[in-house]
Amino acid sequence: IHTHRQDMAYREERINEFFNSRGLMIVMGLVYVVVSYFAFASGRFNASIASGNGVFFNDIDRLLGHPLASYGLNTACVLAIITLTVLLNKTYTFIREVTFIFGSTFLALQLACPYACTQFCTGTGLCLLTLVVQLYMFSTYQQKQVAQQKIFLVFCLVALCSMFQYAFLALVVPFFIGFLQMRAINFRGVLAALFGLITPFWLAIGLGLIDPATALLPAYGQALEVLTEQQIPAILIGLALVGVFTFVFMTINVMKIMSYRLQLRVYNSFYLVLALFSLIMMGVDYRNFFVYLALLNYCFSIQVAQAYTIHSKISRRYIFMILFMLTCAASHVAYYFL
Question: Of 181, 234, 251, 307, whose CA is between 20 and 30 Å from 272?
């Protein structure tokens, strides 16, 4: 009996290692490309979920024009998000154990809704920008005297993106809070943020690239018009579950994370800010909820990775991942019939 239990424990640990592995993440990357292309080629999910416009230009979703280019850019951005997360964690180790489960989880969630994986959505770009910003932001921890250049660059990027999509302007709030959490903001940092927001518009107007008279008011998104009557409750239930489980995992993880050194606690607290931001904006800007979908999926993926590594003594935690993967697969297939 003792030997049988040892064998069972060994097998369970190997299964858990498999879900944590780089190999599964790579396999999921290949699955993502194949399954998303099949959904794209089916033509069922190519109706544009373009989400409004920016201060001076139409949403980049529309500017791409060709559906295949839109699909290709979206796929490249999703894979870039995974790659940057690996780099971010390797650099700052906010997840203290070696794991790649966040990549597998994020890819599965993106596949769960075919509309999110068959065309470029502003949300994918917004999530990618958040990753790029984190690489700069995390490096400013307790560096008030030298952080101004990075603060300026971050808010400059936000302003530049807002020319194509108003939703990027909302990122000013979580990014500013993030720099406050990093203890990187002083009076010069505030000025750097303000100048960063102004500079792209000032340069573009000064060079004659844009005319202030052509500024656009925010337009309503059309996500709800694209979805069928059966798909709307399905995606709302999915969003609710992801949001609830994100905060469930945060609650489960928090006691352990509180025992980390201050720098890692600060890094992890930024994900609470991002999760709250994505959920609040989905409610406020509900016609453009696709814009915040990828970011919410990303926050969920980080919390799953934390829980999976923190609670390593739970030998059968792989059961959650199996059920999660099956649920995402069932969700993807269900959209073909809704």
Answer: 234
